[in-house]
Design a protein that fits this description.
Elements: H1 5-17, E1 38-44, H2 46-53, H3 58-74, H4 79-87, E2 94-95, E3 100-105, E4 111-117, H5 120-132, E5 140-142, E6 145-150, E7 153-157, E8 161-166, H6 177-184, H7 196-203, E9 208-213, H8 219-226, E10 239-247, E11 250-257, H9 262-273, E12 275-276, E13 292-299, H10 300-308, H11 311-318, H12 326-332, E14 333-341, E15 350-355, H13 367-372, E16 378-382, E17 387-392, E18 405-412, E19 415-419, E20 447-452, H14 453-463, H15 471-477, E21 480-487, E22 492-499, H16 506-511
Helix pairs in contact: 1-3, 3-4, 10-12
Length: about 525
């Protein structure tokens, strides 16, 4: 959906204004408009987020006044209506004490928003005002609803439901009118609200609850995803649910695998069996100000067997033109594996893996005659016992930077290493990642990633010095402390975004001035 700039501005302000809303007593008939084949459904509890953001209290008055002034500057002649809506968003005609739903249909054939209508007369007044501002066409009535076009978005409503829908592929908004009318006429259990997925969403306790399936992918991408896999896999049955809550000092997203597809679940089980609880053995290997650190504990032989179970991957491994014994490499890996970027903005990375021995390195000797045919464009050199340096005249060959580039790899103390900056292999000076507030969460997880924002923001600030346009974004990023991603088993995981200020709700920190 790509409406013009005026529409985008108005829509953004309206959503923010919706955070300060009033209650009502109508039913939830509007939920019936959600399409049955929805591949993504996101439910947003704006009332809960409004309470947490403080927009309803004294702190929120300044933010609402700024919002009102900004709206008025973009819609001359509508000052009275804007004042009414900012003071009481129910004046828009929408019932925003009820959850607002966003959806994407199967294979991304359409995407849109569904909200409850409190007063269709006020919705009519709002659209009439938008028409005067040339933000939408003259509203029309057909097939039991009123509809209009706003750029590439079609808006339709009746006495219960407000629907905005568009074609993500860029089709004309007016072509969606019949689809919208059909959705507005759906009865109980005809749409997504009659599915088990919707029931799970209603049971979940979150400010935002999202249900998604792989069926959201367009046909050309879904075909690539299942290439070489079982033809029995049903993408609509590969589902995940995320429950997001805004808490004091952090945002927490609990992720749950709700897939019912047997093929996918069997692959997930096999992948889980190819891993073990993370030991965290690579935390002391890096300085405390490292930006990105991620780790898993892998049994390489089991992982290789799993990969070989995919016909396409197996064929690539067997018929590879490179004289490398991939099975020997995988079989040597057993234990913690870590991939690290001290700072993504500078481009350096290191990968480590516990290995049983260094014998697999001999397979790389077979690469030397092949690389000799490149006339010096690529060279593999020995740099001591169990150590190599791969040099390229143009690093873009492997997606690296323009010009000469190198990769160093080898085995030391039963640890395989791979890096594009040999200095990163040096032992850290001072405190290590063991001193981070999230280090205690690592051990025992099936996967863990930690991201420290302070060093990233410091480097970004150097790069962007003098850019006033990016100042607001840098101010927001400056409030973040760290991010963690962890999986407990093949079914559940969690993402946490933690703020420096642990005592204020995240939404309040974003909408109200700091103390």
């Amino acid at each position: 959906m790509r409406p013009d700039n005026k529409l985008t501005k108005w829509g953004g302000y309206l959503v923010v204004a919706a955070l300060f809303v009033t209650s009502c007593q109508k039913g939830n008939e509007y939920e019936q408009a959600l399409p049955k084949d929805a591949a993504v459904v996101v439910s947003a509890d704006l009332a809960s987020m409004a309470d947490k953001s403080g927009l309803g209290g004294d702190e929120g008055k300044d933010a609402l006044n700024r919002l009102s002034d900004a709206l008025k500057s973009g819609m001359k002649g509508s000052e009275q209506l804007i004042d009414k809506i900012v003071k009481d968003p129910s004046e828009s005609g929408l019932d925003l004490r009820k959850n607002v739903y966003f959806f994407v249909e199967s294979q991304s054939t359409s995407a849109g928003l569904v909200a409850s209508v409190r007063d269709d007369g006020k919705v009519e007044d709002l659209l009439d005002e938008l028409r005067k501002q040339q933000l939408c066409e003259e509203p029309r009535e057909s097939e039991g609803c009123t509809w209009t076009v706003m750029g590439r978005v079609l808006v339709a409503y009746n006495g219960d439901t407000f629907l905005a829908i568009a074609d993500p592929k860029g089709g004309a908004a007016s072509d969606m009118q019949h689809t919208a009318a059909m959705m507005l006429r759906q009865k109980e259990n005809e749409g997504f609200c009659g599915t088990d997925g919707f029931k799970r969403m209603k049971e979940a306790k979150g400010d935002i609850v999202a249900m998604t399936s792989l069926d959201m992918l367009p046909m050309q991408y879904s075909a690539m995803l299942t290439m070489g896999g079982s033809a029995d896999m049903k993408l609509q049955d590969v589902k995940m649910m995320a429950t997001v809550n805004f808490e004091n000092g952090k945002v927490v997203a609990d992720i749950e695998n709700l897939s019912t597809d047997k093929t996918f679940n069997e692959l997930s089980k096999q992948l889980y069996q190819a891993t073990s609880p993370v030991k965290g053995s690579y935390l002391p290997t890096f300085a405390e100000n490292t930006v990105v650190w991620m780790s898993a504990n892998v049994d390489g032989s089991k992982l290789y067997s799993l990969l070989n179970g995919n016909a396409t991957i197996s064929q690539e491994l067997e018929n590879s033109m490179m004289p490398i014994d991939f099975e020997a490499i995988f079989n040597a890996v057993k234990g913690d594996v870590a991939v690290v970027s001290p700072n993504p903005l500078t481009g350096g990375f290191v990968a480590y893996a516990d290995v049983t021995d260094a014998g697999f390195l001999q397979t790389f000797e077979g690469l030397k005659p092949l690389l000799a045919l490149t006339g010096g464009q690529m060279v593999l050199r020995n740099e001591g016992k169990d150590a190599y340096r791969f040099q390229m005249l143009d690093g873009r060959v492997l997606g690296m930077r323009r010009g000469p580039a190198s990769l160093w790899f080898g085995v030391k103390d039963n640890r395989f290493y791979l890096t594009n900056d040999v200095a990163l292999l040096e032992a850290p000076k001072g405190t290590t990642l063991e001193s981070t507030p999230w280090a205690g969460q690592v051990k025992g997880k099936r996967f863990f990633m930690g991201v420290n924002f302070a060093p990233a923001v410091a480097v970004a600030g150097t790069f962007m010095r003098g850019s006033s346009q990016l100042a607001p974004a840098m101010a927001v990023l400056g409030g973040f402390d760290y991010l963690t991603v962890e999986t407990f088993d093949e079914k559940k995981g969690r993402i946490e975004l933690v703020m420096k200020d642990r005592n204020r709700n995240v939404l309040r920190s974003l909408t109200a001035p700091s103390n």
